[in-house]
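Hi everyone,

Forwarding the result from last night's run.
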Amino acid sequence: MEKKIIIELESLNDLKNIEAEAEKWGVKLVLIGGYAVRAYTTGYRYTKDMDFIAKGDIWKLKGFLNSLGYEAEEKKDILAGRKKIDGGYVDLHISIGKVFDISTGKSYPLTNDIFNSARLLNISGYHEEGRKITVKASVVALEDLMIMKLMTKNREKDLIDIVSLLFDQWKNIDLEKLSQNCASSGLSRHISDSVLDLVGKIRKGTFRKIWLDYTGKKMTMKEEQQIAKNLIEIAEKVKSSYIY
């Protein structure tokens, strides 16, 4: 069995254990990142790391991670953990208070509404073996996930995730809510610029190779045009909420 498959299976089993143990510890965790994208899509790329937002005492969270075999380390705005698995590893990050993106210096404040609007969804793996496993977890709302993914800069995995969400969830994205959340967090201009930057990559054809490299699939011209159209609609909606 390939190393990637072994790591994915271990990661999914760990996610299942984390969900079960979090309740026992009285820890409130909500999934973001790649696995959250998998919860909303058919799964276009491989992922193994786990990213969460959390409420609670950081020392309690640290003890929680240590109890699960993760070497927990407190860093700026996050609690990071790593677990070695058969020559590989799984990284785990828990954001507290805000989600901070190091590539842009931007942050998304974690309000009560973000935790309250999370949904209980099923998550499976990317590989055939991983698709046989289903984990039920609390996942951040679609609009919050889109903002977190659009907040970054030049991170190819996030570009793949944004387009994946548009492919599978376009009709379910509440653009009004997305726009309002951008405005309330002071991210309207930044998110709008990020959206238009991705439109540029699609129109220039540079995104085509990124998509192929990560998914093994080719995007048709019709698909590119539709995604670009969806993105422009997002940008225009977010622009309307600019706070000067």
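The radius of gyration is 18 Å.

Cheers,
N.
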